[in-house]
Design a protein that fits this description.
four-stranded parallel sheet, 3 helices, 20% helix, elongated
């Protein structure tokens, strides 16, 4: 089955993420309403929803374990400011994880870091909304026409065959 996996991830525990979210929030509300609603732009607002608890490692390991036949690219999509997960060392040029799968992409799956600014039009950035990010995932450079989008708080809990993602005729499994 020839498809990509796209994971959207927020590292809400990263100080850079919290700082930029607060700055962008204040700029938005000031330009739209002329003032910032009380506590709306607090950097810790709703932090429990996006704090990093290591779930991204469990998701990626679950893909390795339960989709051993997958040989494509896993795109890890995240904002432009946060640090990538500490478990993986990403090459600055290729954006591939050096310590995952096959860094040369010759065999096995690869893990590639993808920042919002690499596929979302500049006029729509910054964004902190999945509803604004997901419609642009098809624009990721190198993503296959068929891809599985997995949120960072999910795991592949059991072995799945390729037909769970792609039909025998090569179309997406809905």
């Amino acid at each position: 089955a020839d498809f990509s996996i796209v994971i959207t991830w927020v590292n809400g525990s990263d100080p850079n993420y919290m700082k930029h979210r607060e700055i962008d929030c204040k700029a938005f509300y000031t330009s739209e309403w002329g003032k910032v609603p009380a506590s709306m732009c607090d950097p810790h607002w709703r932090l429990a929803r996006v704090r990093n608890m290591g779930e991204i490692l469990f998701l990626i390991r679950s893909i390795e374990t339960n989709l051993p036949w997958f040989q494509g690219t896993i795109f890890l999509v995240m904002d432009d400011w946060s640090e990538p997960p500490a478990y993986f060392e990403f090459d600055k040029t290729t954006r591939l994880a050096k310590n995952f799968g096959s860094p040369t992409a010759a065999i096995g799956p690869t893990l590639r870091l993808m920042r919002h600014s690499e596929f979302i039009p500049k006029a729509l950035l910054p964004t902190y909304s999945a509803y604004a990010i997901i419609p642009h995932l098809h624009r990721i450079p190198g993503v296959k026409e068929i891809f599985a989008h997995i949120e960072d708080d999910n795991i592949v809990a059991r072995p799945l065959p390729p037909t769970a993602f792609v039909t025998p005729f090569g179309g997406p499994q809905l």
